[in-house]
């Protein structure tokens, strides 16, 4: 007989037994008896409900191994048993268990060991409470406390009278006050001198009546330093629905405000020189014109650029060029009044707006100051550089009555001064004709693109050793329907200024690839065709895709395309240039470094350039073979190319003597009028088919 089988009482009357049974059956807490080895002997309905079973019988049948079937961590059962074995009683034993559906719940148990006369444990009996909700509440409180202490924003809790009850660690870190210094004291957190008492009181009232107020304000650090904050005040209502507590959330936005100021500054200023930018110049000029119109005064605009700035930039590098621009900006500031506007329009171009000038003589005084300032040498990195300027001047209302026209006419006057070798020039109505010419040429360029007025000419590249054409360089030509042939030297700068160069470059690339494909179909194609990239095209983020599209459209292998770039295109951002070249050469495209030796590049970077060819500029070829220095430079370039694994080609070869000198120096690939001028596709096809007429046998000089 199992002496631990359920029996509420063995010697009481039936009424007592019935009472205990009713208590057992109807108790809110779960009641049980289990064997030490983990089987339920008895359970009441409350325990079945806690564990998710329909009735006690289902529970007893379903939980035959309490450690394995009930406890999330079976070791908890071992701890429970060990306590009972040792103390015969367990109080408030908390553990996580599974209900019937394997959901995890928390329980608290009170239990005792039932022992035989000889001390043996017969069974365990005890009660169970579901404490899941309490545990969740405790966890929520724990998380809330953790958030209060670890959140990045400062938190302040006050009572209805705004006396500080508590602050978090972020408050201490941000303000410098510690909790003991502010707790129990009236809130004195805000920089009233920055806000105003009335506005601060209004903020508290809005929070009290609306439940929450959010916006920006000013707080105070312990050292009295005010700082901007993003502030939220939340009112917590008491039993009478009135605000009983306030919770203040403060975030230091000093950095954010500083970033906003920096953004506003960069939106209106040039980052390099710290002068105002073109947009701000135009806004200031428009405002100055409006004031001058109202007062009946004149104003002047000076438009200037730095003569030979590109040469300085190309020869000494962009770092030197940038420093020159910064020094120019400082000198210009010293030439003007506080009320004058000085700005950088872009590149090496600057503008000065002079409000309230009496006449052209007043403007000329400022011009002379500028010219005098430019006359002094610039000291940059142990260099002493001289950089002059050309200045154009336009007057309001004499020359124009709006900002755009006035600046444009000052620009025209500057170009007139530059073309005529003058230091400065006032605008003259005749100058509009030159401006109109540039505008007309720009318009004609747009029509040329739309109407197909461009064509390509091709100049052969020749290997004088094998006497074969080894490549073709595609060169753009423009025959205007009325003006006739227009030199690329004239229309390319206009296209760059007008933003048309990208479309022209794309057209050249597509046409060159298509022509190469036609020669290939005729079995006439040279090993490669080369296309010159403009700086805008080279730095176009879509260059790789455009090249791929041109090759795919023509059905041309990438190895048959060579792209020519200049050193100066690499100088502005070497790392970016190397990345672009890497993308192109990874496609199988060859890259040639054009005009080598005339621009600025670092030999340390040259070894990293993924180029295939160095192209010797014609300026080194012109005076051969008589110019010994140029001859030495060419020999050095050839040796450098050989050591770095590059091929080399010379351009501008016009005489047999030049060709012979180059061949003797180790440069066998050449290009120039000696072999052929640029010709159209049909004529070039005949050259490929029949060979160059009388291709000279170039021999090294003895």
Q: What features would you describe in this structure?
A:
Mean pLDDT is 86; it is low at 6-12. The strands form 5 sheets. The chain has an 8-stranded mixed beta barrel, surrounded by 6 helices. Strands 2-1-5-4-3 form a 5-stranded antiparallel β-sheet, with helices on both faces. The N and C termini lie far apart (129 Å). By secondary structure, the chain is of the alpha+beta class. Helix 16 (403-419) crosses helix 17 (431-451) and helix 17 crosses helix 18.
Low-confidence stretches: 6-12
Proportion of residues in extended strands: 25-35%
The averaged pLDDT comes out at 86
Binned, the helix content reads: 40-55%
Strand order of the largest sheet: 18-19-21-22-23-24-25-26
Spatial separation of the terminal alpha carbons: 129 Å
Count of DSSP strands: 26
Rg estimate, integer Å = 45 Å
How many domains? The number is: 4
Count of individual helical segments: 28
Query: According to CATH, what is the class of the largest domain?
Result: Alpha Beta
CATH architecture of the largest domain: Alpha-Beta Barrel
Shape: elongated
Find the structural class using helix and strand composition.
Answer: alpha+beta
Q: Describe the sheet with the most strands.
A: 8 strands, mixed, barrel
List keywords for this structure.
elongated, 4 domains, Beta-Lactamase, 702 residues, alpha+beta, 26 strands, single chain, five-stranded antiparallel sheet, 28 helices, Alpha-Beta Plaits
Q: What topology emerges from the helices and strands here?
A:
Blueprint: H1 14-26, E1 30-34, E2 40-43, H2 45-51, H3 56-62, H4 66-69, H5 75-87, E3 89-98, E4 104-115, E5 121-130, H6 132-150, E6 154-159, E7 164-167, H7 169-175, H8 179-182, H9 192-195, H10 197-210, E8 212-220, E9 226-237, E10 243-252, H11 254-268, H12 278-295, E11 298-306, H13 309-316, H14 318-335, E12 341-346, E13 349-357, H15 360-375, E14 378-380, E15 383-385, E16 389-396, H16 403-419, E17 424-426, H17 431-451, E18 454-463, E19 468-480, E20 484-486, H18 488-498, H19 501-521, E21 529-532, H20 535-538, H21 543-554, E22 561-566, H22 567-571, H23 574-586, E23 590-596, H24 603-606, E24 613-616, H25 618-621, H26 628-644, E25 647-651, H27 656-664, E26 669-671, H28 681-690
Parallel strand pairs: 16-17, 19-21, 21-22, 22-23, 23-24, 24-25, 25-26
Antiparallel strand pairs: 1-2, 1-5, 3-4, 4-5, 6-7, 6-10, 8-9, 9-10, 11-13, 11-16, 12-13, 14-15, 18-19, 18-26, 19-20
Helix pairs in contact: 13-14, 14-15, 16-17, 17-18, 19-21
């Amino acid at each position: 007989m199992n002496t631990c089988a359920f029996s509420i009482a063995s010697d009481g009357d039936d009424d007592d037994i019935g009472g205990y049974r009713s208590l057992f059956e109807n108790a809110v807490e779960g009641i049980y008896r289990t064997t030490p080895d983990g089987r339920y002997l008895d359970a009441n309905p409350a325990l079945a409900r806690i564990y998710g079973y329909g009735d006690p019988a289902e529970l007893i049948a379903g939980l035959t191994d309490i450690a394995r079937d009930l406890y999330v961590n079976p070791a908890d059962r071992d701890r429970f048993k060990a306590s009972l074995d040792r103390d015969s009683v367990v109080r408030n034993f908390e553990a996580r268990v599974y209900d019937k559906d394997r959901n995890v719940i928390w329980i608290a148990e009170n239990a005792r060991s039932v022992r035989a006369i000889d001390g043996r444990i017969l069974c365990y009996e005890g009660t169970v409470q579901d404490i899941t909700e309490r545990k969740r509440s405790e966890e929520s409180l724990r998380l809330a406390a953790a958030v209060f202490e670890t959140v990045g924003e400062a938190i302040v809790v006050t009572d209805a009278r705004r006396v500080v009850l508590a602050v978090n660690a972020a408050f201490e870190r941000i303000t410098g006050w510690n909790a003991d210094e502010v707790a129990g004291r009236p809130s004195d957190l805000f920089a009233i001198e920055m806000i105003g008492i009335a506005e601060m009181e209004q903020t508290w009232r809005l929070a009290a009546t609306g439940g929450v107020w959010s916006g920006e304000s000013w707080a105070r650090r312990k050292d009295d330093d005010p700082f901007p904050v993003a502030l939220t005040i939340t009112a917590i209502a008491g039993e009478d629905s009135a605000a009983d507590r306030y919770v203040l959330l403060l975030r230091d936005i000093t950095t954010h405000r500083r970033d906003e100021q920096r953004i506003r500054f960069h939106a209106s200023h040039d980052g390099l020189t710290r002068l105002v930018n073109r947009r701000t110049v135009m806004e200031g000029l428009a405002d100055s014109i409006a004031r001058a119109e109202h007062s009946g005064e004149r104003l002047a605009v000076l438009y200037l650029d730095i003569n030979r700035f590109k040469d300085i930039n190309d020869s000494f590098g962009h770092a030197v060029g940038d420093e020159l621009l910064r020094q120019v900006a400082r000198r210009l500031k010293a030439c003007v009044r506080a009320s004058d506007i000085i700005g950088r329009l872009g590149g090496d171009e600057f503008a000065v707006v002079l409000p309230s000038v009496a006449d052209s003589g007043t403007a000329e005084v400022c011009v002379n100051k500028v010219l005098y300032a430019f006359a002094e040498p610039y000291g940059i990195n142990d260099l002493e550089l001289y950089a002059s300027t050309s200045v154009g001047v336009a007057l309001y209302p004499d020359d124009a009555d709006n900002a755009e026209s006035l600046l444009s006419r000052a620009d025209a006057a500057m170009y007139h001064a530059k073309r005529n070798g003058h230091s400065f020039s006032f605008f003259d109505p005749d100058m509009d004709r030159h401006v109109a010419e540039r505008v007309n040429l720009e318009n004609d360029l747009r029509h040329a693109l739309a109407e197909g007025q461009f064509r390509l000419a091709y100049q052969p590249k020749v290997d004088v050793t094998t006497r074969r054409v080894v490549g073709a360089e595609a060169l753009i030509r423009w025959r205007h329907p009325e003006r006739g042939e227009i030199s690329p030297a004239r229309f390319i700068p206009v296209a760059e200024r007008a933003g048309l160069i990208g479309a022209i470059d794309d057209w050249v690339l597509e046409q060159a690839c298509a022509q190469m494909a036609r020669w290939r179909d005729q079995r006439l194609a040279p090993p490669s065709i080369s296309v010159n990239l403009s700086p805008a095209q080279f730095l176009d983020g879509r260059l790789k895709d455009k090249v791929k599209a041109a090759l795919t459209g023509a059905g041309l292998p990438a190895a048959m395309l060579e792209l020519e770039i200049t050193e100066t295109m690499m100088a502005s951002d070497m790392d970016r240039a190397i990345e672009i070249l890497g993308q192109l050469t990874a496609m199988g495209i060859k890259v040639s470094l054009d005009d080598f030796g005339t621009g600025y590049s670092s030999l340390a970077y040259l070894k990293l350039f993924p180029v295939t060819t160095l192209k010797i500029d014609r300026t080194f070829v012109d005076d051969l073979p008589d110019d010994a220095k140029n001859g030495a430079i060419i020999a050095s370039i050839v040796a450098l190319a050989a050591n770095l694994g590059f091929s080399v080609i010379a351009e501008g070869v016009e005489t047999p003597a030049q060709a012979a000198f180059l061949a003797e120096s180790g440069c066998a690939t050449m290009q120039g009028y000696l072999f052929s001028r640029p010709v159209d596709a049909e004529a070039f096809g005949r050259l490929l088919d029949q060979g160059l007429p009388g291709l000279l046998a170039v021999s090294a000089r003895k």
